[in-house]
Amino acid sequence: MQPPRTKEFFWSPLPHIVVLGVTLFFLFLGNERFFLADLDGVHMRVLVREQFEWQGIGFGLGFTPFQGVFNAVFPFNLTIVPVFLLQHLLSGDVHLPLSATLFSLEMFAAAWIAGGLVGADRPARIIGSWAVAIVCLPVLSGHPFMASFDRVPFYIDLILYLFVSLLLLKGIRGQSWASDAARALGCAALLNYAAFENPLAVMIVGPAALFFVIAIIAAAADRRERLAKSAAAAAVAVSGIASGALPNVLGGTLFTVPTFFADELLHSQAMPLHASIAYQAATFGSHLGMIAVGGSVIGGLVLLRRGGIGRYERQLLLAHLILVCAIVGGGYLLVRSGWVGPQTRYFELVHWPLYGVLFAVAAIAAIRFAARQAARLLLVTRAHRAALIWGPVTRLPWFAESLALGALITCLAVWGGIPASRQPGFPFPPRHTAITNVLAAETALSPGQAFRGSTATLTGFGDKPGGASWSELHYNDHLLLHATGNDHRTMGLWYFGIPTLTEYSHHSTPQLYFLLDRFLTRPQDRQLRNITIYTRLAPRIMRLLGIRYVISDQPHPELGTPRARLPLPQGGELTLHELEGANLGSWAATRVVTGADVDAFTRWMASHPDLEREAFAFEAIEGPLAPARVSPMVVDGKEIRIAAESDGTSLLVLPVQYSHCLTLRGPGRLVRIDLALAGIVFSTKFEGSLRLDRGPLGAGWCRLADLREMKRLGLGQTGDPAGRRP
Predict the structure, then answer these.
(1) What pLDDT was estimated at residue 117?
(2) Residue-wise over 513-528: b if at least 16 C-beta within 10 A, else e?
(3) Of 55, 166, 474, 476, which is the most exposed, with the fewest CB atoms less than 10 Å away?
(4) Which residues are registered as beta bridge partners of 242?
(5) CA 254, 256, 258, 264 torsion: positive or negative?
(6) Which residues contact residue 353 at a Cβ distance below 8 angstroms, ignoring those fewer than 6 apart?
């Protein structure tokens, strides 16, 4: 039988969860347009539908058919996000108000558990859990904090997994082998699940998780308990390595554009806002971030000074306060130093549950202080103050519940008084236009269908001869979206199943970045870490990458008569041109040039070879090579089916990114071609498939192999023979 304290820990918040869930659901019903809004949020909506349709439910990530050149899916596996998975299994669809409600309840649970871990009393945990559940997502149109949960709400999953894991680790005492093993197994399951659900965010939660685990081990009562906890933590780490989860996270984190080209990237995070919500006032117009962070620090100090909390609670509280100081202070210095990696405020997200609970601790302490001062003014003796003033109040039925309701009303009143900071920047769903009608009819993809080419968008930079970046292009997309109902670059095409050269992902590959930046971008343009822009019309290279259509707001008479035109209300027009002879998986090179490194490839590419007949490889390919008769390349979920015949040995050059994560099924050899692309060497006949599956077991190590190969080839380590950079 469970002890009363354990029962209270798990059952006490249930009435609050029910009331909060019902309240938030009806609030979100009237405000769902602010949930999963703007570019990031709408991107998630499109990805949820895409991944369930193309990937199916599972732990591995396959191709993304609509972004870039068949790279791996954006580094979230949305098919195993519990909120989305549950709805998909029950109804086959995802309901936004219900999703927002469930994510908010997850945040409530995370705050409740976190509050218990640091020794907060029940009223503070109730109030803090209510408050953080309300403010983490846009209940009303105004938003008091610069958060990311409204666009990427499944970060909350990892926060909840972390605090549940810490609770399990804390319970390992070294006294019962079975009990300790069960807790360690639970921690391992949560770690691996988190790593395959959201490998990008694991790196964001990771530093705090490591710090908290060390704090729990350090707080062990004796050597036996410390050894038990250490062994459990080591076993959890080993399970993550054995499953491929941690190598997958590490490979995905390191095999990115900033690893190779950090000095080329635009420093777009110089504002203190990117360090912490504590600095949001200057940009976001609200001092609530500083109040929340400062109040939580005060609440933490109050708990430490008050005493009466256990050694685990004290160590975890100290760890939290140290990390918050590091984020607020160190993050400020980092963003000012030219940092091009993740914004440090992302590392702050894991501390939100404790911000809420500890702020409530500070608020209750302030109420107690005010009560004592009032008693002093009323000449109540010190011996009777607590009995006359605070004691009866705290013993009233539903005291914590009344305070929680007051916190809810206060939050909604404050929040409702904040004017709507913006309307959603990406009205959803997008509308069809004369251009997207043609693209949808001739290139849209569905599972099991032949690849018919992708689209490149060259808009938004014609009036910027001094250089452009993603910010300028995105602003132009915003104007196009509101003028025509479609941005014609990202969501407006992906929503209709139209593949594009544009890729919006933290896991964009460095080799494709190099190819686009050096040969499809003007020297004066600047790049960001998670989206590579292209601003030059280069039909030779575009055809190689499978680009069949080009959308432009500038005239291109060399491309002939446009397939479609779209007049714009602000003047000018968009045109749609077709590039004849694009590589639809149909190219077979008959001559191969070999080289040892990226520098040799760059010189070769700059010499303007015939890319349909000539290819560059980093390994010998025996010839002579014969032309091939190729059937349409069929894209189906995690694999691409290919069939070809020839009169000898042939080399297929596919518009698919090469990776060690690829598995070739069929009588041929997979090779890296033209730095970024996959090639298949076969004799006489090939029938088979390419499969991409970044997931459990061996597949978790493949990105690290990609990283080692690009380092060996000298990517990012040589000069710029093509003269791309000024």
Answers:
(1) 95
(2) bbbbbbbbbbeebbbb
(3) 474
(4) none
(5) positive
(6) 107, 110, 111, 113, 114, 115, 128, 129, 132, 159, 163
- The CA distance from 192 to 189, in Å, is 5
pTM: 0.90
| More confident: 163 or 389 | 163
Task: Please compute Rg for the chain using Cα positions.
Answer: 28
- CA angle at 112 for the pair 169 and 332, rounded to the nearest 5°: 85
Given a contact cutoff of 8 angstroms between Cβ atoms, the answer to whether 679 and 590 are in contact is: no
Alpha helices in 397-469 (DSSP H): 399-416, 434-443
Tokens of 599: 């520098």
For residue 93, the tally of other CB atoms under 10 A from its CB is: 11
- The rounded distance, in Å, linking the Cα atoms of 76 and 61 is 8
Q: Are 204 and 350 in contact (CB under 8 A)?
A: yes
172 vs 181: CA distance, rounded Å = 8
- Mean pLDDT throughout 83-110? 93
State how far the alpha carbon of 375 is from the alpha carbons of 36, 361, 380, in Å.
49, 21, 5
DSSP string, 174-197: SS-HHHHHHHHHHHHHHHHHHHHH
> What 3-state class would DSSP assign to 329?
helix
470 phi and psi angles, rounded to 5 deg? -60, -35
Rounded to 5°, angle at Cα 578 from 574 and 583: 135
Polymer length of the chain: 726
* Alpha helix stretches (DSSP H) within 550-611: 598-606
CA distances to 368, 370, 374, 375, 468 from 381, in Å: 16, 15, 11, 8, 71
Q: Cite the DSSP H helix spans in 505-553.
A: 510-519, 539-544
Q: Residue 527: which of 717, 718, 716, 248 has the closest Cα?
A: 716
Residue 294 amino acid letter: G
Q: How far is CA 660 from the centre of its chain?
A: 23
449 DSSP β-pair partners: 635
Which regions of 633-713 does DSSP assign to beta strands (E)?
Answer: 634-636, 639-657, 662-665, 668-673, 677-692
Lowest mean pLDDT among 107-121, 162-176, 321-335: 321-335
pLDDT tens-digit series, residues 569-614: 888 899 999 999 999 999 999 999 999 999 999 999 998 889 999 9
* Long-range contacts at 478-482 (CB < 8 A, ≥ 24 apart): 478/425, 479/570, 480/568, 480/574, 481/426, 481/427, 481/430, 482/427
Distance CA 137, CA 160 (A): 16
pLDDT of residue 579: 96
Give the strand pairing for 454-458 and 547-552.
Answer: parallel
Count Cα neighbours of 445 within 13 Å in the Cβ-side half-sphere. Answer: 30
Tokens of 119: 């020794």
Chain centroid to CA 344? 14
Alpha helices in 528-647 (DSSP H): 539-544, 598-606
Taking each helix axis as running N to C, give the angle between helix 352-377 and helix 288-306, from 0 to 180 degrees, rounded to the nearest 10.
Answer: 70
